[in-house]
């Protein structure tokens, strides 16, 4: 049997003609569909047409040699209704061997995924772009005005307490938009929504023996296709429509949408994994290989995307443009972005073509670009990631600095002072918005667990409890896990407020982990990627049981919104401008203008000030005591005509520890008293006594 004639049954049922090489993928054209797929290594290529409902093969059509354009196999098939067919490709490799039916790397929809938890049988599907966006407009928000909220589409509303009509879906999340608005969120960062196989996990539950899920979704199957199981209508068209409805609704609420994209590896894994697409189409173009032809595993997932190969680079750019043009998203967070900075030999590049192209692409010009500037090899490019005046970064130095300061670690006061003003040591010349500040994210302990556990408790993951980050600079406040001790509970509540308040007072872009505002717990599990259960779902009953914390966070976001001095695009300096009453930033201690930068210091106090040409000023004073005992201090004098007012004090009783604008009491006597492990914030407001 020859390669040229192996597939091809029922080929006579369809008429074909030469196609257009670009765009790649499947594109409806008058009278049919244009199919185009790139492969430098294929000796032959077949188009496999399938019934959209059953997946039964309808025909296998060879791409005639005369239809090829360079290394692109292309043809137009007449009489094909996009709504009635699925499709795939079959490749004859250099040795003549035939591949299984492959997914189209450019497919904008994947059929066969079904409800969440069902083993998928993927097929490429054409989703016709006919969604009515109406008056949709991207919110006009500067990066420094954002408050990002990292959320998992399923986990956000899957818990019964969410009380939404469609739990665990795009529409379920849409029902919670009023909650996000009241919380003060201006940007939602969604964990991966590109199609992935949640059943692809080899571990089982030690308790029940049931298979665990690949819950987070960092295992991309379809880079252009939305996750169908997150929709109420599991068809590709249904998933597309419901994600677009969610984005449109968030935009109408003034909330931007950032997608977490996984472009560093794929679900094909190493040589033991499934052949889904890239492996058979052009393995050495899409994956980093050793000289011996083995997979370079720089991601700890089995394979590593060859991101700066021209073929793969073009695919990634097309992917990002697709999400922006088809789904109107406002930006991306790039998982393990340091992989995207590696050359075709696996080494880090000084000037990575892909990152430069993303930064300067006209379609992506208004997008927020956030890099997780690390990879699984231990590379850490925080502060040195190739930015091209466009890229921001998840600032892991901020996370570590705020945690160490709140634990009173030696040298932490001076270190966190730098983080508080936007990490100018890392991002000087790039502006404060280069730093995405966070305390917690999906990967690690929740905030409530960070104050409740000294060590990870990952036994439920089926990996012997040894997976996840070994040490997170956490402190259980005196007792491991749940406790009835009122003193431990009080300290944990205070530490959570301390962290959230400092985060929202810091220069840069703050990011909250969904549920931290209501003390969501994962019972000490700091690697809950496999936990599709109440362990990782948001329990909305906490909005009642932790209502004081929720109220506190709302007051903090409102305070940040009311004070532009906290949202400056440039790092504040310590020099006094002409005509100003205070410099943009000044540091203090128990006595004004006398900060304590000693290694043992547990007191940090800062005054942030700005004023306009008319002399109108915005002035905030923050004091943080991470020590075990109370402190008293005397803040510097506020600007003329103003008086210090107490806005937040985490040392006060919950419920009385924050005050909304207009109801902040004046500071009596000029002395600020700080309880142990507490943070207070003052604002200079007009002195009504004058």
TrEMBL record:
One of its GO terms (biological process) is carbohydrate metabolic process. InterPro entries: GH, GH13_cat_dom, Glyco_hydro_13_N, Glyco_hydro_b, Ig-like_fold, Ig_E-set, ISOA1-3-like_C. Residues 1-25, 461-488, 625-670 are annotated as: Disordered. The keyword Transit peptide applies. Residues 150-560 form the Glycosyl hydrolase family 13 catalytic domain. Keywords: Transit peptide. One of its GO terms (molecular function) is isoamylase activity. CDD domains: AmyAc_Glg_debranch (cd11326). It comes from the Bacteria. Belongs to the glycosyl hydrolase 13 family. This is Glycogen operon protein.
